Amino acid sequence: MTDRAIETQNLAKRYGDTTAVERLNLAIAEGTVYGFLGPNGAGKTTTMRMLTTLTKPSDGTGTVAGADITNRDAVVSNIGYLPEEPPLHAELTAREQLRYVAGLRDLPEARAEERIDDLLARFSLADDADRRISAYSKGMKQKTGIIQAMLHDPDVLFLDEPTSGLDPRAARTVRDTIADLAAGDATVFLSTHILPVVDELADTVGVLYDGSLVTEGSPDALKQRAETGDERTLEDVFLEVTGGIGEEA
Amino acid sequence: MPGFPDTGHAASIAYNELRVGWRKVRDRSLAQLLAYALVTLMMVVFTAAATWLAHLGGQAYVDDPDAAGELVGLVPAAVAVFTLTMTAYLTALQLGDIDVRDGYLTTVPARDVVGGLLAAGYLRVTGFFAAPLLVAGAGFAVGAGAPLAFLSVAVAVLALTATTYLVGFPLGAAVAYLLGQSEFVDRYKTALGAAAFLAYLALLFTNNLYEVAQPAVEAAQASPLAWYTDLALLPVPGADASALRAVVVLAGSVVVAVVAVLASVRVSERRWYDDSAHAEVRATDSASSGRLDGVLGRRTAWVARKSWLRARRAPLKLVYVTYPAFVLFAPIQGSIEAGRVTASLPATVTLYAAWATGALFTLNPLGDEGAVLPVTVTSGVSGRQFVGGLVAASTLVGTPVALVLAVALGVLGPLSPVAVGCLVVAGAVLPALASTVAAGVGTAFPKYEATNITRSREAVVPSLWAFGIYTIVFLVTAGLATGLQSPTVADALADLLGVSAAAVNVGGLVVGLALAGAAAAIAARTAVEAFDDYTSDG
After folding, report:
1. Given Cys at both, which of A102, B232, B292, B295 links B301, Cβ 3.0 to 4.6 Å?
2. Interchain CB contact of A19 with B (< 8 Å)
3. Model-level pTM?
């Protein structure tokens, strides 16, 4: 594995005449949390789909955990992915779903059981683990999806709005878990609209606007850069770079 | 083997697909479970019949191999064509894709997912006919007095169905991929789907389905597919079966299967990872206000316009309206064969048109609102306006159609002028009454849960209770108004009652409309009250 967990050069995606992502250059270090921000329709999900090999780039190159994003088999074995809608079979129980995915990930049975029990307890799902997912609330499904994505200790974890639908306690658990993962070797690529989460967790923040990366840096640096004498928050920075560029100019 | 699915992963995915599929079936309503039970019963009957015929075939084959040989030789060709066609069709429609695709494709290589789909799909597709064929093979072996033939027939059946299934899968996936790449198909998919369905019905009505399949079956018969017969008949005494051809066809099956699996992986990867075409469809704002406001009142008109707009944007959710169209098969087929409009066609078509009008927008007024229902009931619109809007939406669409059909078929058919007049009146009045009756039944038996109408699309459709009760009520009331216009029925009843056929025509119309009108009056009140008194408590 290289010291860059995710690296892209001029990555682009076009659908016919529409450009979803344009000349995206990322260099995300191992063991960090990258906060990926942007308004709705900015191209965040398309970027994640390219990095997880779910869609082919129209242009440019990229690597994830040292594997070329065109080499699907190599990328898939090193990543975990939680899309906006957790990919779960509603007809299974959470334990069945997790055992199933652990089997597909070739986790040894004993280790899988231990890991599943540990994560279910951590996310307060142990008591409901043998109920059908179809009976779960949105937050419980989200928690199951997060456990599923991190079950195999991936090198790089892609999380699309992981705290969506979670109550404050569960959201806290997710934030603590992300921090723990990054404290190890894992890299977390975190897409969210909840700016305090990014402010708290991210080592680096990138803001995508209209398919292009309009600013990037540590939360503190971004807040400083935007500083004009007033007290600035990440929200101020976000609003400025995604809507106020023309006004500022 | 490079590019081949991991068998452990594929088996796990196949098992999970079948497990999830079984639980989906188990979770369905009692009525749907009964439908499955009926299909199972039919399969048992079919298997028993096939086994008996195979037993007779076995006896006949031993008695006179030349005479029965042609029939026996037809079986693998027909099975191959059927398996390949069904597999390709079902793969394009459903089998070639998987739920939670993003989850799978970021967990295991796509080829493992394809392997799982192939294994699960084979059991699903061929379960319907490979199992009966295996049982029938036992019947053949007993009939032919060659117990070992059971084994050889089983090997032949499994090899043939597996090979043709594996060839059909990538073909279906390729068709789905190519259709997904076409902007034209994306733009006109609803019209194209309807055209394909009508073409299929036309083939069915005109008894031409076999004519279309015949060249394919004949080609299969003339190909090495016929050698599966050698494999099946190898242990049968007196059979002119070639051991060489049997071995070659078995080895060929393995080679074709390997190539087909690799092709399935390749095509599925293209299908899942390539961007599909999206036609730029401009959604014209057809929900703007207009003359309807003046006629119906603003709120009622908006309810009607909303129903039309939703139906136009998602026509598939109305597909249930076509289910009872099978009642038209016999009269249409009879008319086509006779080359003229037969006596029963005008009344049946008019009745169906009126029934369909009622089923269009009013058979699940509350459930069809979906997540918007709380907003609708608190928007200030009254039950009378809401139900009126839905009835208007159905009636304004259905009445012209029912009327035109009643006039055209009535005039072209062998109906008396009085019967034609009565039928036209029925065609003009019944659609509105049907819509009102449906609204009452639909609010009494609502359904709020979405149902899968295709693999990727869910919609809230009327409950089976609403569907059934509306149909019964409509048939016993409106059925009189149309059914007694049929010359055969009218003449028989006229003889029985000692009155003229014209009196029966008019009497049937009056009584039918009166009964349907009474039902509609009760239904309208029920529907309006159900809307006005709606609470989420049920």
Report:
1. B292
2. no
3. 0.77
